[in-house]
Amino acid sequence: KYTDAAYAAQISTGAVQAFNVAAGNIGSLLWGAGFFLIGVAYTLNSSFKGIIPAIPLGPLGIIVGTLIIVSVLIIDPIASSSTAGLVGGIGFALSIMGYFGWRKTGYIL
Fold first, then answer.
1. Mind listing the pLDDT tens digit for each residue in 75-95?
2. Which pLDDT belongs to residue 109?
3. Computed over its alpha carbons, how large is the radius of gyration of the chain?
4. Which among 7, 39, 59, 75 is least buried, having the fewest CB atoms inside 10 angstroms?
């Protein structure tokens, strides 16, 4: 009976971990897709510059969104989760720079 309880605990722990990984991947995909679409909208309507003055916010959003989507869909399954996390972290840093650039323009509160 004790082995059955230990086995059930291992299965439930694995299920919780799988759910957490799936939720994180879905969240990253939604974040990347949203940032990509924000970049497309800014590309179509304006040429505001963010914290990185050489890159307008529209292309920055497209680059960051694509980087995040590629890190979740391609790099994570092929290379490793740590490499995908590193690429996603670079995308996160760029998105924060873009966000503060958008705040500077007054379009995001």
1. 888 888 888 888 888 888 887
2. 43
3. 19
4. 7
3-state secondary structure of 49: strand
Query: Looking at the 3D structure of the chain, how many domains does it have?
Result: 1
12 inside domain? no
Q: Is 3 among the domain residues?
A: no
- Asked whether 49 and 102 are in contact (CB, 8 A), the reply is no
Q: Which domain holds residue 79?
A: 23-105
This prediction's pTM? 0.69
In one letter, which amino acid is 82? S
Which residue intervals of the chain are DSSP H helices? 2-45, 57-70, 76-78, 81-105
